Amino acid sequence: MLEKVDLNKSIEKEEYKTLIKELENKLCQLQRQSKDLKIPLILVFEGWDAAGKGTLINQLILPLDPRGFNVYSIQPETEEEALHPFLWRFWNKIPEKGRIGIFDRSWYRRVSTDRIDKIVKSVKCNYLYEEIKDFERQLSDDGYVIIKFFLHISKKVQKERLKKLASNPTTSWKVTDLDIKHNEEYDKTLTVIDEMIEKTDTEYAPWKVIESKDKRFAIIKIIKSIVDVLESKIIEKKDINSGKLKIKNEVKLKSLDSSILDKIDLSQDISKEKYLEELKKYQELAREIEHKIYIKRIPIIILYEGWDAAGKGGNIKRLVQNLDPRGYEVVPIFAPNDIEKAHHYLWRFWNKIPKAGHIGIFDRTWYGRVLVERIEGFCSENEWKRAYKEINETEKQLVDSNSIIIKFWLHIDKDEQLKRFEERQNNPFKQWKITDEDWRNREKWDLYKDAIDEMLFRTSTTYAPWTIVESNNKYHSRLKTLKTLIDTAGKVL
């Protein structure tokens, strides 16, 4: 595809002066409108070495309000980044709603430069393409505008620019042996880039090839592309806000025929003596698991969901009681704050994904999207319906990055919950555990039960299955979670 692009396009200086002034003024206006309408913009700059990414990004941002954007220069992974899933460092950099994130190279480094340099095998790229498309679609569905630029120059022009940079003592550091090698293998690299663009050019995150031999032509095309896309998005957002345009609910889900929870036997019982004996044994085994995953650099992600008063806190306490505190983190999840609300809902969870060899324990999770946010109306119907797919994709990405995911639903019946609520209310040392919100949620038991059934049905996958923990008896519940951790990790270790 790229070999068919006319790389001799240019623009005269006088025409450029007229166009650039008008486009820059328009871009500044659109930046302010995007901020007011909370439209986040992601600009991706990829391209050949010496294609002018730095220069063009600098020209692009000069007229903008510097308080409204961040520029990220993406280098090879640091040691810390390499200990996390591939997309972790990019989720951490996505802009708040109303801001602009500009990427000088991006997640595409993994399927372009890293592939060319044999850091990533070609066979791995097929599922990396899928991860990238899922990532971009999730952001787009949440209102992010993504524009991807590939700066294209010929082999001859690239060679001339590299030679010029290398001959200048102040810029020679910019030219590496790999840059020279990429130029020598231009045709081979071209094939890789063609495939990358073909595999990841989508309606929600299209590629725009920028003919970059003439830098005046290139910056005009870049800014005009941004202006055109933002104008369209702003009109759409205003129409939605005014009610002229309805958000289409395109997610259709099949109804469930039966209840998963109704089939759970909650009558399990165990004596205190037997419990204490088993607890000690399982905690020692869990400690061995912690050491093994550290040596093998395998992360474990443990997700806790359950009814109010189902015993998540006590369960987690027993799970970590004998672990080395340097090897795990317990992440309590509360209602999102203003900064978290200004991002995609998955952003705050990606920030807490454990690095390789460590354990991350989430007390409530991203499943809040299809539970409390669904029932309490904190998100739209379309948002919680598409969340099932987004969550499954995210968990698949984590598993593909060598993570072990263990998901617990702590289940109790309505009578047991009432008993525990009353116990908390009557105990001065436990009253802090019971709130008016807990009582209100209890009144919606049947609504929550339907949502839980659907969550279990739609998100229990072969790579991240749900374990339903019968929790009317706390002793049984604690032992089952520990045993599940040991058995699940043991299959990998």
Task: Fill in the keyword field for this structure.
alpha/beta, Rossmann fold, 20 helices, 5-stranded parallel beta sheet, single chain, 493 residues, 2 domains
Could you characterize the architecture of this molecule?
The chain has 493 residues and is an alpha/beta fold. The chain folds into 2 domains: 2-242, Rossmann fold, CATH 3.40.50; 269-492, P-loop containing nucleotide triphosphate hydrolases (Rossmann fold). Helix content is 50%, strand content 12%. It contains 20 helices and 10 strands. It has helices spanning 13-36, 53-61, 79-82, 88-91, 113-116, 125-141, 155-167, 177-184, 186-200, 215-242, 272-296, 312-320, 338-341, 347-350, 372-375, 381-400, 414-426, 436-443, 445-459, 474-492, and strands at 41-47, 69-73, 100-104, 145-152, 207-211, 300-306, 328-332, 359-363, 404-411, 466-470. The strands form 2 sheets. Strands 2-3-1-4-5 form a 5-stranded parallel sheet, with helices on both faces. A 5-stranded parallel sheet has the order 7-8-6-9-10, with helices on both faces. α11 (272-296) runs parallel beside α20 (474-492) and α12 (312-320) crosses α20 (474-492). It starts with 12 loop residues before the first helix and ends with a helix. The model has no long low-confidence stretch (mean pLDDT 95).
Brief digest:
This protein is of the alpha/beta class. The protein has helices at residues 13-36, 53-61, 79-82, 88-91, 113-116, 125-141, 155-167, 177-184, 186-200, 215-242, 272-296, 312-320, 338-341, 347-350, 372-375, 381-400, 414-426, 436-443, 445-459, 474-492; strands at 41-47, 69-73, 100-104, 145-152, 207-211, 300-306, 328-332, 359-363, 404-411, 466-470.
